[in-house]
Predict the structure of Aldehyde dehydrogenase (NAD+).
Amino acid sequence: MNALLENSRPVIGTARPGETSLGARDHVNPATGCAQAKVLVCGADEIEAAAIAAIAGQRAWMGLGAEARRAALMKLADLVEAEGDTFATLAALECGNPVSTPANSLALSWIRYYAGWADKIEGGYSEPIGMAGFAYNRHEPYGVVGAIIPWNSPIVAIAMKVVPALAAGNAVILKPPTITPFVAIRIGELALEAGVPPGALCVVPGDAEAGEALIDHPAVGKVSFTGGGVVAKSVMHRCADQLKPLALELGGKSANIICADADLEKAAMMAAAWSLVPLAGQGCVLPTRVYAQAAIYDELVDRVRTIGASFRQGDPLDPETLIGPVINEAAAQRIIGVIERAKAESGGSVVLGGRRGQGDLAAGAYVEPTIFAGVAHDSHLAREEVFGPVLAIVRFGEDKDAVAMANDSRFGLGAYVHTRDLSRAHRMASELEAGGVGVNGMLPMAPNQPFGGYKTSGFGREGGRQGLEEFLQIKQVVVHL
């Protein structure tokens, strides 16, 4: 067992239970396929305890005052930064993200940004029509927020979802998946050390039972969920039964349009690096379907293949590794199934990869970085989210064809355009049906920019003032004179 993982226990108010209602299960290292720790699985009982603690914790959190809340969140950022190596190692062990991944620095930027909002929440003033008097509005927290995060990058998900809710004055019950509990638990421990009152951030690793109990609990005023569309439908139904507000950040199949006048060196590097490397392709806004204009198609395919072949895949604890394993064996088998289906029906051909990890990587959940060229736009590979290191390249003729194919998707999270023509870039950006468009580069996930989707990629925003307002209610106060 790894020493970093041995004492990980849920954080519920002042309680750190040594056992839970659903017992313990083995946690498997995705890089080795071997059990490395025991995970305590939370259920409805632990959610009930967390709700009780969160109600009291939220009152204490608000009682500190805005300046003290800002100071506590800034202190949390300092503590997370001081344990940067620990968080990188935990992420490598629990979800296979290489220690070379810059997730910690991204998360810190979000924590500090929203810490700064904690003492800047303000309302407005007006004179109501038809009466003598004045009115003002207050922006107030929901009370307790239920936050359900995915497994692909826990520290970033926590920074994007939990910290804004805390900055708005809410308590948060955080439910990480049982396959990635360790980063979240450590954040919960550091929050207490930073001065966040017990109960204001409860961490309850669990699966379906815990998630359903969290959504259904009457103390939870709002739910924020990041994950897949199938589970999101269930979450939405449960919230609808209670008329409970909900924010959803879901999947994507982001189109990456590369025009003939683009800087091909930069466009090819982005196409390869940002589709295959981050989180082993397990990211919702990665540019996993490339539309390359016919005049530069062959050259682009050659460049992307060469770049993709240079990426080192291996042990996520090795600082030279760029691509680690996918989350588990089931995911690896599913991704290989998608690859085999694409070989048969996509109309394209594999120009790189296409197999499970070989040699020393065979025991882990490794899938080779894989590139398909000549893919048909209407194929399963070009239209559905793979959530693995698989890139599809499609040929297009005119700009209107590329935009039409990009929009011909049920997803609408991100989109990308590469061109030297500024007018063309603005025109395409306005025509693309996506919550974010990157021109000549990647969407940076900057904390001061609103991030979220169109269509089935969700609703609500994380980032910027909009991300804070997701966790605030507006109350009007009218004074008659």
